[in-house]
Amino acid sequence: MKFSTLFPPHRKDAVEAALLDAFGTTAIDNMTTLAGGLSSAHTYQLTVDGQVYVLKLSPPNLSATNLSLAADANIAPALHYRDTVTGVSISDYIENQPIRAVFTPDKLISEIAAIVKAIHLIPSGVDGAPLFETVDSLIGQFKQSRILSGPVFDECFTNYAILKSCVVLTDSDRVFSHNDLNPNNILCDGKRIWVIDWDAAHLNDRYIDLANLANFFVHTEEQEHLFLSTYFDGDVDEYKKARFFTMRQVCRIVYAMLMFQLAAQHKPANYKHDQKMEGIDLQLFFVLMGKGEISLANYDGQLMYGKALLNTAVDQMRSVGWASSLAQFA
């Protein structure tokens, strides 16, 4: 099999079986490795008989229904092969277009709200860890790593604990969720949106997906109103706005913890983590990233992004909006 050296040796047989099942051949015209996100999966772009596909090697025996459910709902790209035991899948390749160039600002907000709603309407029994249990675990791992500490972290985790004691997660809000709706997993073919990377999908609180996506795409009160109104068919009350606002901060904490994990793994030897938190925000981070002065692919970018996310969460927790949101849960 051509290009076989790109696959982990212990996965080659499973890949050959997948190619034979999907295409009747193991002949690959061309193949490249695709950059991965936080997933542990190996992902490849390959061409077979002139058609381009994505082959993904997820951890073996990973819950395999997620991708099939999403593809059947026409939310994930069409699925040509999926093995529940080996973790191999083959899907259509989407030639991604800049999403903000395809849709007007208002249309983009409506489109992403509609895609989240479609995800949450998928019938599924794929269960997963409860929301707060997952967040608690990430915070616990962060504290054990001792990468950073200080009053900003203490304030953040105290406010999170208060939120956890106030809010009640209801079964009516427990829906099939993607759980990692960041821009890397949102593709546009020039006409519509597709969602990829379903490894983390399971039943979860609906506000996780709403908040995750909003943290990347929703930046004004007007956009927030359009986003929530589209998702809830206009039925938006103060309680829903409070759940949405507080969950945006929880999602920032989650992504901050994940960034700090990556930074800890990539820290140069004999290097002490910079404990400074003051003056580091998302605006500064994205300015530096836009100039090419920092990157999420390396230690400095991962550490700074984590700090910016956590600072943003704490700033919002100090706002009137946080206090008024907690009052909705009393």
UniProtKB/TrEMBL annotation:
SUPFAM superfamilies documented for this protein: Protein kinase-like (PK-like)
Entry keyword set: Kinase, Transferase
Domain of life: Bacteria
Domain Aminoglycoside phosphotransferase: 33-244
Transmembrane segment boundaries: none
InterPro entries noted in UniProt: Aminoglycoside_PTrfase, CcrZ_PhaseVar_Mediator, Kinase-like_dom_sf
Molecular function, one GO term: kinase activity
Keyword Ribosomal protein appears in the UniProt entry: no
Pfam family, one: APH
Protein name stated in the entry: Thiamine kinase
Source organism (scientific name): Mucilaginibacter gossypiicola
